[in-house]
Sequence to fold (174 residues):
Amino acid sequence: MSRISVISGDITSLDVDVIVNAANAQLQGGGGVDGAIHHAAGPELLEQCSAIYRQNGACPTGQAVITGPGDIPVKAIIHAVGPVWQGGDHDEAGLLADAYHNSLQLAASHGYQRIAFPAISTGIYGYPKPAAAQIAMSTVCDFLRNHSLPHQVVFCCYDQETHDLYQHLLMNYD
Ligand code: AR6
Fold:
């Protein structure tokens, strides 16, 4: 699937239109990629997130909201809330797929061409990396088959294991 690429690195330094954050339901920043994004974006991002939280309340698991980019040189940031891994029988797979699908939907509705995802839920939220990679890849491939936007999806991997998992899956989708 030529519209998908897999790279290693820090999602805050990519040349894309929109980056996805692995956020928490309160949109209040945290550790992992969320911490890196808030650190790079500066205090304006937290203000925007707090305003959304004040207006809408918590962002349900599997849903996503969009903000401006603060100081990060992209057009927008999508904050998606992935599931906390609880053993697999709490609809974690469906909710993780929803987080990817709803992020893609938001990006498409704003006309964005290039989007980058981190491996949502696979850090602090404890989702097993191989299963999460499979869901990420199949959800994105299904979406791209049916939509012209976003045109390009980048899976931004922060560790070698995640990179190898995505690379292997991508070869099987070609
Ligand atoms: N660029 C790309 N990927 C990264 C970066 C980065 N700069 N930093 C970490 N990762 P996590 P979660 C990878 O824990 O599991 C926060 O506190 C990381 O190696 O960031 O969805 C939120 O506020 C892993 O592969 O997100 C929530 O409370 C992936 O990003 C909670 O953590 C996701 O790991 C969300 O947990």
